[in-house]
Design goal:
single chain, 74 residues, mainly alpha, two-stranded parallel ribbon, 1 helix, 11% strand, rod-shaped
Length: 74
């Protein structure tokens, strides 16, 4: 049944009554765009995670300072 499928480009789409036409290049381009977008999202997420630990370290240093004040108050 491979003869019943005809692959043509989107720029020359002509459909006959007895043929099935499929446009492949736009589908490949869409998949490529989706993968590229996912990569950008992962890079943005990695940047946000990279800044997270710095904030947590600063908060823990503040907690240690508060504990020292409480110990000296006793």
């Amino acid at each position: 049944m491979i003869d019943s499928l005809r692959i043509i480009s989107a720029s020359s789409l002509i459909v006959d009554e007895c043929e099935t036409s499929t446009s492949i290049p736009p589908a490949i381009k869409s998949v490529h765009d989706s993968i590229f977008s996912a990569k950008e999202t992962l890079i943005a997420a990695a940047s946000a995670i990279g800044f997270g630990p710095q904030t947590i370290i600063s908060a823990s240093l503040t907690n240690f300072s508060a504990a020292e004040i409480i110990v000296s108050a006793e």
